[in-house]
Specification:
mainly alpha, 79% helix, globular
Length: 424
């Protein structure tokens, strides 16, 4: 009965438009009141959820991403990718996907990718003659690459929950992220050829090299973070501070687009963004504690394994559940609540925690671009001034590719485990 109250109150608040963090917190508060449990549990479990040295890297990576973005790295990544592949049919659309792959090494979040790149590329694509729904679809779908290619905020949360090496999770996402990017490029090219979208001029080697030199600092940042973590030079939290110092040096003294006067506002915006995530993690941890107390994880595990113990069927069922949840729930909240629930089921059928973690993050990323509540879809549609319905129709072939990559990741473990095993 108490669990029913918990879920009903949570769903009601979601449909009323209450932010996900407060929906989790208020539904948990109602549960505690009706079950006669001391309300002192709320601060205890919230603090327990965010009291982690590893989680300190979240504000660090957010600040580093915002500093690099203010330093003009977004424009330089776009220029480089457009100079390399812009002469191909649909080149600006291909550059959109390529820029997302490059920007993934800076932000670690899909929403930052959508907002930063979309504000530049969607108007540019429309001006060049691409349809508005197609421009929105390319931007929204390619932004999901951000949390797959390191660094990745969802993977930091996931690694903290299950005590999995964040460095291993980071490097495990490289091949799936590249596969996703290449798949989206193929779809973009096929549609562009079919609709005869424009191509740009072929650039000289000198122009390409100059734009590469402008974008190289973002690529070096990825190498520094990965090599530092995997080489044991610093922890993920220390890596985030290295990234902040690196971003400030590049922005202030190399690109010189970042000014000292910009830094206070960037820090304030980063603090607010990090606070949103931390509050969400805290309330989600309280909600997850209630689920565990009510033995919901075991009930779900038993239910799934009652349907079938065949690993293929179980993996498909888990993916269907995550796809459904990803369409309605914020990614970090879904990870905090569902990862501890589903990991034992995945391990029972022989999945490695790293393999399952990357599959889960990729799965939930797809939800960011799908209606009814895909935030990346909403942001891109707002920038492109396109209705969600028209954008959703344009997204269908891109979602098809994302689902194909998801199936490959789910059923071919070496796609995620090859690099961790190689460097392990």
């Amino acid at each position: 009965m108490m669990t029913t109250i918990l879920f009903i109150s949570f769903l009601v608040m979601i449909f009323l438009g209450v932010p996900i963090a407060f929906s989790l917190g208020l539904s948990s508060f109602i549960y505690l009141l009706t079950s006669d449990i001391s309300l002192s549990v709320i601060p205890q479990k919230m603090f327990g959820g965010i009291n982690s040295f590893t989680l300190l890297c979240i504000p660090g990576f957010i600040l580093a991403g915002n500093l690099m973005n203010a330093a003009g790295i977004t424009k330089r990544i776009i220029d480089f990718t457009n100079n390399v592949i812009g002469h191909i049919r649909g080149g600006l659309g291909l550059a959109n996907v390529g820029a997302s792959m490059g920007f993934a090494g800076i932000s670690g979040t899909a929403l930052a990718d959508t907002a930063s790149l979309g504000s530049v590329l969607i108007p540019a694509m429309k001006k060049e003659g691409y349809s508005a729904p197609f421009s929105v679809a390319v931007t929204s779908s390619s932004s999901t690459i951000g949390p797959i290619i390191p660094p990745s905020l969802p993977m930091i949360i996931l690694g903290t929950l299950a005590t999995i090496s964040i460095g291993d999770l980071f490097i495990a996402g490289v091949i799936p992220g590249v596969l996703l990017g290449v798949g989206l490029m193929i779809v973009t090219y096929i549609i562009s050829v079919k609709r005869q979208y424009p191509r740009g001029e072929r650039q000289s080697f000198g122009v390409i090299f100059k734009s590469f030199w402008g974008a190289i600092w973002a690529l070096v940042m990825i190498v520094v973070i990965l090599y530092g973590i995997l080489g044991g030079l610093f922890t993920p939290t220390e890596a985030s501070i290295v990234a902040v110092v690196y971003a400030m040096i590049v922005g202030l003294f190399i690109y010189r687009d970042l000014k000292f006067g910009h830094i206070p506002k960037i820090i304030l915006d980063s603090v607010i963004e990090a606070a949103h995530i931390m509050i969400l993690v805290g309330f989600a941890n309280l909600f997850a504690w209630i689920l565990i107390s009510e033995q919901i994880p075991q009930l779900i595990a038993d239910l799934i394994l009652t349907i079938s113990e065949n690993p293929i069927i179980v993996i498909l069922l888990i993916n269907l559940l995550l796809l459904f949840v990803g369409m309605f729930m914020e990614t970090i909240a879904a990870i905090v609540i569902l990862f501890p629930v589903l990991l034992p089921v995945a391990m029972q059928i022989g999945m490695e925690p790293i393999h399952f973690g990357v599959m889960m993050v990729l799965n939930l990323m797809i939800g960011l671009s799908t209606p009814p509540l895909g935030v990346c879809l909403f942001v891109a549609s707002s920038i492109g001034k396109v209705s969600i319905g028209r954008a959703s129709v344009a997204l269908l072939p891109f979602i098809g590719v994302m689902l194909l990559v998801l199936l490959l990741v789910a059923f071919i473990p070496q796609i995620t485990l090859f690099l961790p095993n190689l460097f392990g």
